[in-house]
Design goal:
CATH architecture of one domain: Sandwich
Helix content: 10-25%
Number of helices: 4
Largest sheet: 10 strands, mixed
Order of helices and strands: HHHHEEEEEEEEEE
Keywords: Dioxygenase, Iron, Metal-binding, Oxidoreductase
InterPro entries: PCO/ADO (IPR012864), RmlC-like_jellyroll (IPR014710), RmlC_Cupin_sf (IPR011051)
CATH superfamily of one domain: Jelly Rolls
Protein name: AEDO dioxygenase
Distance between the termini: 21 Å
Oligomer: single chain
CATH class of one domain: Mainly Beta
Shape: globular
GO molecular function: metal ion binding; oxidoreductase activity, acting on single donors with incorporation of molecular oxygen, incorporation of two atoms of oxygen
Pfam families: PCO_ADO (PF07847)
Strand content: 25-35%
Number of strands: 10
Amino acid sequence: MPRDNMASLVQRVARQAGITFRSPAGPAFGENLHRLQQLLDEVRAEDLHLVPRGPAAAAAAGGGVPWAGVVPPVSYMHICETESFSMGVFLLRSGACIPLHDHPGMNGMLKVLYGTLRIACMDTLPPAAAAPPPPAAAAAGGPCHRALFRSRQHYTPASPPCLLSPHTDNLHEIDAVDGPAAFLDILAPPYDPQHGRDCHYYRLLEGPLPPDAEPPALPREVWLLETPQAADFWCGSEPYAGPRVCL
């Protein structure tokens, strides 16, 4: 049997990610990205030896090292990392949220393995002299940024991967809906504060909607307030028990 046919699906995804993100400015990047997207779309929880968890299973599984006796709302399974990309699995407990954050200068792909995620995606916008000032609520806060709120969609294992690029959908917020959820995550290149790729968190500056009011239509311009990492959000770690990946 040919070696490529013997390789696990996650090994083939990692190999294609290495090819794709080795030269993100090269002429074949679009074709390689499409091939990676196709492979990632095939991945299911069982390919990573991952068993969907019930509402209370995260606590029973440990979910990493508890902090002050509390299981982390989100855990991460590290699979592999190179200078070009990182790949791992995020596991969200029921009702957990990964707050709105950015990926400076990075590409990314997210594939839901089980559960349902609601993902809000935004783009940063350049400063504009004619733009309205930020809301008064931001006066005593941190830096404010104009952004384009592009979409808010639900993703399930049947959905195609959610993509981000350095300029499109680069900011996102991820909520677990109606139970625990997990997704396979690829970031290229990995976060690296020493090279200007630190993670920044944001809060959407919008007032509460009146009762029975419909959410404003998308896309629309919004203001974001840069904030510290929320005190109720942190990420634990769990061992990865899926097929070995060699790069």
